[in-house]
């Protein structure tokens, strides 16, 4: 690997960060949005020498970027659609991500069970093409499995009518912690990044975007705000990109044609005993043509997902009863012990920012491209949306290419992120704890020693979360709320909502010691009830 990241900052004290922001008058690049796309741009730009400010209205990876199916993949179903270019790019980006953050992204084997005799050769042949497209970036070769080996590799699988299966390799990751690590890596390299600091206006001068106005969302008095000028402003707000585009268009007296067609993906988490395997299950085509995953992750099992068009763009989307029924019904066909509503430990939903086609028809979101789109408005606002976590790095590179071609940034040195280890990345030969194992210190990589040195390292709050981890989240990981800690620094809310409700008061007390706030405990308890209660 190339140059490693410098040691992490000692603290992420919010008063100091806001003081730095208030003292900042101008930068080369402002990134609006702290999800996968924005964080990738911030790190890439800073490594190329640009001065960078990133502002996020809520928490880093607080929206779509923490609600993925936890897969780093080339896109098997995109191969079936004939999108060879997207698959090839994603397969190579998959390898880069696993190399740069091996504590947060790792290889994972998938098994497709076959209940019809033609499925093994059909899917196996397609996955051999998948291997060939990966080339030297392959994570493992595709194998045809007989009935006995398929059942052995997926304990808990429904074996009645089983003919065999196909095993292939992709990857899995911890999406929220990867987002946080990108933010902290960019900060170590000199970028100023803040969460809970929304952009409330885009500034225009002589018909061109020239900066932003920001506000501290945690200042209850609403008095802490300011402006920063920039040569280039990036709109990387995911499913909310059209809101900023409306501000930009209104300044030019123009109407806005929406770019995004949101699609909702629901995930159910159940106990690992339903499929106690270190390999994932994939049903490539369910009875209604969708895809079903059963993914072991952090000691639990994720079942999903759905692909439902939604008009409303909300911070906390809710699962529809029919989506829950779909996942449970399809799981019952492939798992020997069918999960029921009462077995669901957490239900969570993400909105995908799919890019609207130029001419929409009545087809569902399955037909909409998953590729990203970059647009530069007449006033110079650069908007990026679409895409997926696996290709976040190449998306960032493409964004900066558009910025350069539009004359918004100077000629830039070559991109450095393809081989740039993120904070905490262990050496290539270091033993790694699998992400299929229960949560623990392993997700901190080389920073685990720093976490263990904090008070309360031996005080377990549940599911591997220690008091020291909460203190580390407050001191060095930008955490300001109970939700930040239990949803994204640790993934307890996504794994077991009832356990998160139990742990929340103690987390709140620790945050009060660290930052002088209860971390919006009541708001978190209400949110956790939403994750705990399954719509029927």
Structure characteristics:
single chain, 536 residues, alpha+beta, 10-stranded mixed beta sheet, 8-stranded mixed beta sheet, 22% strand, globular, Glycerol-3-phosphate dehydrogenase/oxidase, FAD-dep_OxRdtase, FAD, flavoprotein
In short:
Belongs to the FAD-dependent glycerol-3-phosphate dehydrogenase family. The protein is an alpha+beta fold and 536 residues long.
Describe it for me?
- Residues 28-389 form the FAD dependent oxidoreductase domain.
- It comes from Castellaniella denitrificans.
- Its cofactor is FAD.
- Residues 442-518 form the Alpha-glycerophosphate oxidase C-terminal domain.
- It contains 16 helices and 20 strands.
- It has helices at residues 14-22, 36-47, 76-80, 84-100, 119-134, 147-153, 175-188, 241-251, 321-334, 392-405, 448-452, 467-476, 482-489, 492-495, 497-515, 521-532, and strands spanning 26-32, 52-55, 71-72, 105-114, 143-146, 164-173, 192-194, 199-205, 208-215, 225-235, 260-271, 280-283, 292-297, 300-304, 308-309, 346-355, 373-376, 382-385, 460-462, 465-466.
- The radius of gyration is 23 Å and the shape is globular.
- Mean pLDDT is 93; it is low at 360-368.
Strand content: 15-25%
- Helix and strand content put the structural class at alpha+beta
The helical percent reads 25-40%
The main sheet comes to: 10 strands, mixed
Report the mean per-residue pLDDT as an integer: 93
Strand element count: 20
| Dominant shape | globular
Low-confidence stretches: 360-368
The CA-CA distance between the termini, in Å, is 50 Å
Rg over CA atoms, rounded to whole Å, is: 23 Å
User: Total number of helical segments?
Assistant: 16
